[in-house]
């Protein structure tokens, strides 16, 4: 099942033959995590990039006063990692834990580079994925800069209606960078 | 001059032979802009991605009330575009204007795809560039979420000391999402 899911995801950008897909698939490992389990912990090595097959994860940063800031809420068909840790080998600064039971297909940095070096189509795929990732992040920066909580909530709800139903209002508020009370007013 | 500059920039990621570089270079066009000139205007087509050879540009979004939000201040060796317009062909939503006289090497979407399809090394280069772009944007999202203007200013000053000397305090404040008064307090 998870294999078909990854294949359909890749095919949105580039078509692989059965053989090419099986080759690419062999670089990934299937992983299962329980709700509340940590996939990445700040301070640890975080050498895997993960594709969500099932579930939701929360990627966050906790400052020295213990306050948590949510960077990403990732569900099926999203990719997540601690990008800095993954790409540089430095210890993770982010935490990633599971909001639901989660299944991933995960690839190490080394395997990703090997796969890209040996499969032209997969290098193209990852270049395009990062391009759309950049576009989404720029949108998020603009939404945060404009600092209009109402617009931010409306935009997020429209963009990810199915995600909204599966996570708590407290998490949504934290993701948007507003208080729980502000979000309640916006939800009325 | 600008050609050597681009070559040195590419060589930070991947080494090209003279021939390979000349081939890659042929996909770029050299452009010159005056201080205050617009390179991208909201509503227009923005089919070029630009590498800054000299100067500084400001990439910003203006909301329906006329308030401007700065997404990027890009100087030598940075890349800029309206990523959404560049990658989808939709009209630009951002404005990019010159803070100083600026020179760029610019590549169209079509040429970038042709170059990547015909040069393995350049596809690798652009994949890696987008990876580091993602890392920088995630840092910016976290800085905005944590909403600590002092930390944000300190981090930015440390990251780009030479940029700070070349642009006005008003622009820096806008980039950081704080008022000019707040920035003055932080600068003391």
UniProtKB/TrEMBL annotation, chains A, B:
Upper lineage: Bacteria, Pseudomonadati, Bacteroidota, Sphingobacteriia, Sphingobacteriales
UniProt xrefs under Pfam families: cNMP_binding
Protein name: Crp/Fnr family transcriptional regulator
Segments forming domain Cyclic nucleotide-binding: 31-115
CDD domains given in the database record: CAP_ED (cd00038)
Highest taxon above the source species: Bacteria
Species, as recorded: Pedobacter roseus
